[in-house]
Amino acid sequence: MQLQQFFEQNPRIAVAFSGGVDSSYLLYAAKAAGCDVHAYFIKSEFQPDFELNEAINTAKSLDVPLTVGNLSVLGDTCITDNPPERCYYCKSKILDKLWILAREDGFSVLCDGTNADDDEADRAGSRAVRELGVKTPLRLCGVTKQEIRTRSRQAGVVTHDKPAYACLASRIPTGTAITKEFLEKVERSENVLFDMGFSDFRVRLIPPDTAKLQISFDQWDKAAARRDEIRKALKSDFSNIVLDLAER
Description:
By secondary structure, this protein is α/β, with parallel strands linked by helices. It folds into 2 domains: about 5-155, Rossmann fold (3-Layer(aba) Sandwich); about 180-245.
């Protein structure tokens, strides 16, 4: 099936929108095909503020209406206990909220940006997508990540070269309880590195108070040159700061 055919069969769709490369392209393609498409972004404690701001700007650039729903996940011990299937429980909670918002607006089809390269075995949230009846048109139509980036660039979609981004909870080791304090430490630290001009990196927590910086190899020299500045900026949240020598 081609995407155009999917949109012809589903002319009115709600999209679970993260502001990332895949869901942004899905919005663009649906809009270009003439669909009545509406984006829905769920803001929880796991999403940093910049991600919401970028999602708002991207939806605006695509001229697609956006609804932002707020959801607290820190009261759910299935999530905050941080078990191996945390993503499944979290995704289920988010999709439940998305369905509520979409149905309130009269939508009966909810889609997400899963693409043809996404390995369901490696994505705990994929089970929630299947169970809750969310359609995955990019995967269904065999559209790969590289094709999405290429098509997005050709169409002028602003996210075409945006690095992949995982939620803040992914910075906390499985089995370590997720707390508001830990999430805020990670977000503050990553904001510092963003402001210094670093890109495509992670600040991972090693309990109780060590930060492991995962920075691409081509930025190591920059990190070394700004070592004292980084250490000073992060010391209020972390007693120890280490650099992961395995390229992320």
